[in-house]
Amino acid sequence: MNTILSAAIYFALACFALAMLCALIRLLRGPTAEDRILALDTLYINSMLTILMLGIGYGSAIYFDIALLIALFGFVGSTAMAKFLLRGEVIEP
Amino acid sequence: MSTADIPLWAALPAALLLICGGLLTFLGSLGLLRLNNFYARIHAPTMGSTLGTGCVLLASILVSSALEQRPVIHEVLITILILLTAPVTAMLLMRAGMFRRRD
Questions:
Q1: Is residue A93 in a domain?
Q2: How far is B23 from chain A (nearest CA, A)?
Q3: Got the DSSP string for B40-66?
Q4: pLDDT tens digits, B79-103
Q5: Do B18 and A56 touch (CB under 8 A)?
Q6: Which residues cross the membrane (chain A) (predicted)?
Q7: Is the Cβ pair A4, B4 closer than 8 Å?
Q8: Which of A13, A72, A93, B5 has the smallest set of CB atoms within 10 Å of its CB?
Q9: What is the pLDDT of residues A48-70, one digit of tens each?
Q10: What number is the ipTM of this complex?
Q11: pTM of the complete model
């Protein structure tokens, strides 16, 4: 049964690596700036899922905190860049 | 991977959820790569950020609860955070895209 879970973890890790590769190609190729921000948004969600997956695999609770921080700061970064595209500055007076 | 002593009732649904989550996330990112328009591309990664995250976090709750022999639900925090923040980011990006394409 544990081989089933290990195989599923490796499969999901491969899926997340391919997904991050797709997002990276879009980040490098994207024609407009919104595409690049969208690719960065996808990239941080995929990396958060990868770290959660490592936490499941190693049975450690430390990875949860890293995933929570990545989710928090990724949201702040994406929102700041989208706001910059929308208004020309991030924090308005 | 040290998935040492996880019982079968938790390992089988967790494996199924992990496979589903990985496939959904990969399909979402493939859509981000393959679709040909920004308004079409913004749809695809939402599948990874909602369904994929939900599947992986549910599997994480299952495995942690089976390891600790008690209900462990602190992963719900990440689910709530992602569910609250993903629409905000998508809405801001869409408004930025419409703003930059105006004539």
A1: no
A2: 6
A3: HHTTTHHHIIIIIHHHHHHHHHHHHHH
A4: 899 989 999 999 999 998 888 887 6
A5: yes
A6: 6-25, 37-56, 62-86
A7: no
A8: A93
A9: 999 999 988 887 888 889 999 99
A10: 0.87
A11: 0.89
- Domains: count for chain A: 1
Within a domain: A48: yes
Nearest chain A residue (CA) to B21: A12
What single-letter DSSP state applies at residue B70?
S
**CA dist., res. A19 & res. A11, Å (int):** 12
Q: Pull the structure tokens for residue A73.
A: 């700061």
Distance CA B83, CA B79 (A): 6
Which tokens sit at A11? Answer: 């499969």
How close does chain B come to A90, measured CA to CA in Å? 12
